[in-house]
Amino acid sequence: MSHAIRVRAFAKINLGLKVLFPRRDGYHEIRTIYQSVSLHDRLKIGLRRGPGITIDCDDPAVPAGHDNLVYRACEAWRAARNYAGGVEIELQKCIPVGGGLGGGSSDAAATLMGIERLTGDRLDFPARLRLAASLGSDVPFFLVGGRAIGCGRGEEIYPLPDLSSRLCVIVHPGIPVSTPEAYRELGLSLTEAREKRNVDSFGAWSQFSLLDWGPAENDFERVVFARWPELGAIKNQFIRAGTETALLSGSGSAVYAVFDSARKLNQVSRTIPRGWAAFRTRTLRRREFQRLLFQVSPRRP
Ligand code: C5P
Q1: Active-site residue flag, 93
Q2: Which is deepest, 1, 42, 288, 298, by most CB within 10 Å?
Q3: Catalytic residue among 138, 219, 235, 264
């Protein structure tokens, strides 16, 4: 790669997630609060003369072709900008796949931001948001970072003021959850849709703590914890250890907990079941998210 740029793709957790009703377009209407965390994948993006897109990923489970959101992000951006050149991407995965942490979506958003910085050829912000939304419901959030409300199918983003930073532990049992399946299992009908339209307002959305860390709810816990009770058990362990917020992230299967002290986090880290992946991370403010995106040291050998 002659001309290349390195980008970090940060994971997200959901500080609450309410699924209101199924929509006619096949998606569900949701309300959520996204929060960036420092856990991240790394991308090295390069340009080349010939056409084509190549992705070299260190995780063989990640597809290299059209099924990869990074590939689709490149393709969509090239079409939007009429860019004839080729793109080469090295992707170093750290965010678990199928964890509800937005890894693939974040990689796609980082790809868009990286290519634009590399080429100096930029979409305006609303066009970049629209392109991101066409790739996946939570991709637009990763262009913004920090803490933000997600409405619609998750793609309508309203940035919120940052809360004070917190240490965060994320555990992943290695079970990938399929997002479409998790939505289907909620079993929401269009009848419920009519009833739930009444609560389709921020005012009625009081269980989400918009002002501070605190208990939060995720509608997916009902179906995901019923299938994997060990996930519910670890959440209860986090609560007993004095977490401020512990929750399933997205449609799972990662569960996270935030702590105001390293001592509590260390204590609870010892109780994580063997064989589970555990990530010690921290929440990121929007300014930090934006500052750290392009501050990437070269890949470790
Ligand atoms: O938008 P994304 O590609 O991430 O969505 C994957 C699938 O998850 C959708 O095809 C849909 O089945 C389901 N989904 C949904 N409602 C949402 C987001 C996703 O039903 N708000």
Answers
A1: no
A2: 42
A3: 138
